[in-house]
Amino acid sequence: MPDFLKDYFTDLSEGLFSTLNTPDAYFNKIALTTIAIVIAALLYLALKKLITRNEADFKKRLKSQKVLKSSIMVLAILFVLFIWIQAINALILIALLIGVFLAFMVRGLTTNITAYFVIKYWKYFEISNRIEINGIIGDVIDITPINVKLLEVRGGLSSDANTGRVIKLPNSIIFDESLEIVGGKNSFVWHELQYVLSFDSDWQAAEKLITEAGETYFEEQVLHQLKKNIRHLSEEQEALRPVFSVDTNDAGIVLTLRYLVDYQHATRVKTELQRKVLPQLTDHANIEFAILEVKVFRG
């Protein structure tokens, strides 16, 4: 610690101890402190009542009351400092506290601005990209020097639809959390359709119906978009086609279709595939969906 700060705090401590060793001054300062606290409390209650009476909007009223409480607390603390410490010492102490606060704020601001340039000029992600960070999924709608604004996706919904909520995240979060990005050069992701049939169902017929629906979707909606993004598509086309798999569990035979979809249209595409596949499965005489039975035993 610099010598001038050591001298300042030494003089400050000596001043406080000398005050405590002077009973009259000590009791006077206690009385003034008590009066200041009482006045501050009464002033807060009176102004809070005034705000409650004149502000009908709950959010604005709550915000105004918080600002009022913080302001009165700061004023009361400053007044008490002037009571117990010499005026010049109080001003120096206040200046030091403000300096520490500003240094902390500037540090956070600097980190956010640095992260902003990383995002913008290193193409970390761009507007319209979908990102997942710290368990939050959303489409990027704005990037400012301070924060990133996301239009939340899913958030408790079963589909990949926007919830309508806008989430603000500090830019510096990219330095602290892992980040998954969708929608850069390639906006396609893998999704799945899954059906569980009874064990006596004709699962081969179901496989044919599901595979045909997947292949038709791939040829009509995916292939021409992939040609725009992938130069040597012929070499990769087979790996990008829908994949069908069969498995079993306690309920029945599990049929899964894995397919590529543009993340911005995932819910619409899934609904279209379901509308095409479900009627064919339900109309087939040898295909039945599995029914999960729950047995309850009473002792």
UniProtKB/TrEMBL annotation:
Has UniProt tagged this entry with the keyword Acyltransferase? no
**Keywords for this entry?**
Membrane, Transmembrane, Transmembrane helix
Which regions span the lipid bilayer?
Answer: 26-47, 67-85, 91-119
What InterPro entries has UniProt attached to this entry? LSM_dom_sf, MscS_archaea/bacteria_type, MscS_beta-dom_sf
- The answer to whether keyword Transmembrane helix applies is yes
GO MF terms listed in the record are:
mechanosensitive monoatomic ion channel activity
The protein's name is: Mechanosensitive ion channel protein MscS
Origin species, per record, is Planococcus versutus
Ranked from the top, the taxonomy reads: Bacteria, Bacillati, Bacillota, Bacilli, Bacillales
